[in-house]
Specification:
The protein has 296 residues and is mainly α. Helices cover 84% and strands 0% of the residues. The chain has one domain. This is Sugar phosphate transporter domain-containing protein.
Amino acid sequence: MWYFLNVIFNILNKKIYNYFPYPYFVSLIHLVVGVAYCLVGWSVGLPKRAPINANLLKLLFPVALCHGIGHVTSNVSFAAVAVSFAHTIKALEPFFSAAATQFILGQQVPLSLWMSLAPVVIGVSMASLTELSFNWTGFINAMISNISFTYRSIYSKKAMTDMDSTNVYAYISIIALIVCIPPAIIFEGPQLMSHGFSDAIAKVGLTKFVSDLVLVGLFYHLYNQIATNTLERVAPLTHAVGNVLKRVFVIGFSIVVFGNKISTQTGIGTSIAIAGVALYSYIKAKIEEEKRKKSA
């Protein structure tokens, strides 16, 4: 379900950008629909809403801020370049995670992990040089997204609470929504009011426009929620393999659906990058497993 919902989200999201190129507003809609879903769930007790106080809010706010920034910049990238290329750039996220772990948290990263990241950097570089849809807006925003999600991981460790993952994600979504409203109004508000909405409705009709936005928001929330619930229940190695395979699925399906033409070098670079992520994830999971055995 995690893979299926993620693939559907990416395909529908890109189709919307093809006739409505406003990623800040679409990102906002993703969160609006997700928050509405959470509020309905709370109202019927599925799940029961966990209480929150000022201390928990302080812990969750940095996580939500990074989540919001990473979400918006991911969507700006998806709107600017091919979905397959955006996901190739986002394969660099483990590199930023390792750098943050070593230089920000002060925790030593083993040489084997650094070595496994070399294919990722090489592969992404190869893919970028000959990618037909390459532009700096897509590339830079994908990189900002990587940094934001890295910091989200760091702050998430500090924000570990007794609250279940469904409630945590609900609160993070609400805070992220509030954070994302101002930039959407500032960067896209005037264009949307003058011609953005009217142009989209003229192209596809009001019913399809509204239904597409609601559906993409629903798929966005559900894939994130199911991913959170699933990864809470599996071993780190399963988590690592799952993340890599998910990216392969999304890249593969996006190429088939949108008929993106990629050069041989881009294909080889993407494959090398994904293989590097797989190797990094495997080594990291094994290291964590050994640490747990020693502590046990």
